[in-house]
Structure of cysteine desulfurase:
Amino acid sequence: MSTIAPSFARQALRVASRGSSASAFSRGASRAALTQCINSRRSYVSETKSANATVNLETTIKADQKAFLQETGKRPEDVKMPTTGLDADAMMSPTAGILHHATVMDQGSRPIYLDMQATTPLDPRVLDAMLPYMTGLYGNPHSRTHAYGWESEKAVEQARAHLAELIGADPKEIIFTSGATESNNMSIKGVARFYGRGGKKNHIITSQTEHKCVLDSCRHMQEEGFKVTYLPVQSNGLIDLKQLEEAIRPETCLVSIMTVNNEIGVVQPIEEIGRLCRSKKIFFHTDAAQAVGKIPIDVNKMNVDLMSISGHKIYGPKGIGACYVRRRPRVRLDPIITGGGQERGLRSGTLAPHLAVGIGEAARICKEDMEYDSKRITSLSNRLLDGLLSMEHTTLNGDRERHYPGCVNVSFAYVEGESLLMALKDIALSSGSACTSASLEPSYVLRALGSSDESAHSSIRFGIGRFTTDAEIDYVLKAVSERVTFLRELSPLWELVQEGIDLNTIEWSQH
Ligand SMILES: Cc1ncc(COP(=O)(O)O)c(C=O)c1O
Ligand code: FES
């Protein structure tokens, strides 16, 4: 019979290190909230209560509750806590049904998940909010003639308000889309086509380290006759504001610079860019897929006119995102998808209420938990980074200060990144963006920072998130250090370095 770690709720969400040595779980704010989620499923659980269970959940929750309050300094009345006497085995049984749908507990042992930039796990609280809209509340939110429509519409509007609140916008300025890719396409092509008519405002400025969907949207506009400036970045990954100012022309209609880079986590000076664009009366779009919900964002303070948001990067569902489109001063767009005129005519098509509710709830939780999550992620990140950098010949890619801590990109000299990924099969990692992870090309982002091919090839991105634990970081540090050492020992280059030979002085024979 199994007993259960105190942080059962976090464990319930675990998609990672089952069966590995990283199976102790740290305490965290999310756990308390997750227990709420579990509480809400109590009636479901009671049907599946296991006869064998020994651990009383009440005791477990109380211990968790106490630790949570101590850690956060919150008062008990500020936090809703479950008070059930359900047993733990019933809670955790993968087959009995409890939390079955919120977890992958029956999938066997899986790698530790440290690829949070590619996607994040769905927060069980989000799933709870979504479920009714996939079952009984199935109305079309655009149906105006009956209650089915109204109830869906109400939920969609509440979700819109949550998103707006997270970024300091008005709900009317939030347009639901299928994800950040669509929001980026919609913003860049939409503004360019609307204002570029007649060829007067036919210039766009972006940067070389943008996500592929921004770069590709710009390329597309080049084919339609637009001119595009792809600003270089400095070796720390940040754009140079002076260069941006110099790149502005009378024909410039749009500047598109991302907030947080998905490969190296650097945070661009959005407020300064916004101020500059506003002073020149140029629209400013930012791809904030990796920033919203993780760092404080205020579209008004930052003078952002358009912003792309993605659901699955903030512990919400995949297949939904949003685009913030400023109303004052008004930004006009040529819509990409036309039809029924939904979403202020900017994005036709029936909304998916369950997805909208999902991204809305995810946004609400992000706002509520941001301070706590950010503290935890920063401390995990510092520990990881200090540990990695204490190994010889490792370097951080990107700026350490202007940096979102949940994204740690490190180069391990004399180790081939792909080999290291293979050697670290028990950890889900990536050497860069998910959409290019199949190619063995060195990252264009790292190349833009001036990294050599070798250095770019030897880099790994560690993505830390809301549910990452201390034990996982310990495990990862140990595993990385062991396997980097192992791979270096196989490398003839490493042998030369150990002998004190400067590799730059070697003349390699050409083939
Ligand atoms: C910076 C950035 N922009 C855009 C996207 C695309 O987002 P979505 O998957 O929602 O289309 C991603 C996701 O990989 C991203 O990291
Ligand atoms: S779509 Fe996410 S990294 Fe490319």
Q: What stands out?
A: The two ends are 63 Å apart (CA to CA). Residues 392 and 412 are 9 Å apart (CA to CA). Confidence is low (pLDDT under 50) at residues 1-31, 37-60, 82-86, 91-106. Residues 132-365 form a domain with the Aspartate Aminotransferase; domain 2 fold (CATH 3.40.640.10).
